[in-house]
Write a structure and sequence with these properties.
Blueprint: H1 2-53, H2 58-107
């Protein structure tokens, strides 16, 4: 019985490590994408401002500002769904780990689980 609990605990720690690694990877990708989008749209405004100073019409500059204002929230909306699904899968995995610990807790009332 004790060996079984130790094996389950070891298995759950491995799943938890996998879950944490997956979550960190998703956060890193999300941050990279957000920074890249903001950098790209900021660069667009800078380049169009330089072109406007050199003699291009102000219409191009206003279009770049509109693109920047709508592009950042638009990008968030476009890839929010895929990130939400990925995080939902992560939460499902966490719930699975918690539910798999429940029978061990019911079987052995003296069992102690560390958070």
């Amino acid at each position: 019985m004790i060996l079984d609990l130790k094996a389950r605990e070891k298995e759950h720690k491995a799943k938890e490590a996998k879950l944490n690694k997956h979550e960190q990877e998703l956060r890193r990708k999300e941050d990279t994408i957000a920074r890249g989008l903001v950098l790209c749209l900021t660069w667009n405004v800078v380049v169009v401002t330089i072109a406007w100073i050199k003699g291009e019409g102000p219409t191009v500059w206003f279009l770049a500002i509109i693109y920047f204002i709508s592009g950042v929230p638009g990008g968030y909306v476009m890839w929010y769904r895929s990130l939400y699904r990925a995080m939902r899968d992560t939460w499902d995995m966490a719930a699975e780990i918690c539910l798999s610990l429940l029978p061990s807790l019911v079987e052995d009332r003296n069992a102690e689980f560390q958070v």
